[in-house]
Amino acid sequence: MPSPILVAYVTRSGSTAEVAEAVGNALREAGLPVKVARVQDPLLVGDYRAVILGSPLYMGRLPGAMHHFLARNRHVLSSMRPWFFVLGPWTAAPKDFEVPREQAKQQLAKHSWLQPAEVHIFAGRLDMKRLRFPLSLVRFMPPLRELSKTPLDARDWEAIRAWAAGIARQLRSAA
Length: 175
Ligand SMILES: Cc1cc2nc3c(=O)[nH]c(=O)nc-3n(C[C@H](O)[C@H](O)[C@H](O)COP(=O)(O)O)c2cc1C
What we know:
The chain has 175 residues and is of the alpha/beta class. The chain has helices at 15-29, 64-72, 74-77, 98-108, 142-147, 157-174, and strands at residues 5-9, 34-38, 50-56, 83-87, 118-122, 125-126, 152-153.
């Protein structure tokens, strides 16, 4: 049995968790053993052959749990080329990906030792009902007041599966 692939994610309102599961399922369909887990779970990153990390952006930042995971696993991750997916925009328009791409780049630059194989931006989901206090208060902020009345889900499941299938091909050819 080849050593498994780790898909580790952080989420605040659940949408990144669902993307992580979809990435995991696409890898399994390609015949690869996978573990999907939260970055807060007890994980021995060195037990995995490859690592895919997923995180949303909030106010231009990755949640603290992702920064802690990276710092905690610096030793192992610095000898790997992890893939990164980042959720952010609420539309699929390419121009709306530019700011999140820059935000993700700046956040990951805090870990100068990290050499990701790729940092991929996916559209995300806005669902105020799933945001917990105090973040839930943002629904009273003028720019979000209108937007937040009905959930917006811009996640492109086909693009997510295609991205994961591309990683599976790279891993299989490297085996
Ligand atoms: C209060 C708030 C702030 C956000 N800030 C950003 C941001 O700075 N950049 C971005 O690209 N997306 C931002 N988003 C969008 C989230 O990244 C997106 O909704 C994502 O799907 C949430 O992931 P989660 O459900 O896993 O927590 C923000 C969302 C909320 C609710």
